[in-house]
Amino acid sequence: MKAIVGDNMTPGIGNVADLKNGVDLIIRKDEKGGFANYDNSQFTDVSSPAGTKDEIGRWVTKLHDLSALRNPKGVDELEREIAIYRNIRR
Prior knowledge:
Helix content: 25-40%
Number of domains: 1
Number of strands: 4
Largest sheet: 2 strands, antiparallel
Strand content: 15-25%
Radius of gyration: 21 Å
Structural class: alpha+beta
Number of helices: 3
C-alpha cells in the first residue's frame, strides 16, 4: 500500500488502476512455507495504457454484475443465525 500512496519519505506512484496512465505491476509468485508468496512483486516506473479503446470496451461488456449476487438478510434472520452459531438455538 505504501508503494501506491507513499509516506513521509517516498512519494506514491499514483492511481495504479488508471486505464490510460496506470503503472505496470510485475507479479512474481514464489513459494514460502508451502504457500504462494507475492512479496517480490513490484510496480514499475513505466506508465502504459491497459489496452486500446476497443479492448477496454470488450472487457467492460463481459463484466459480471456483482451487486446481483448480494442477498442482504433482515435483522431477525441475522439474529437467528447468530443464535444458531452460538449454540443458543437450533
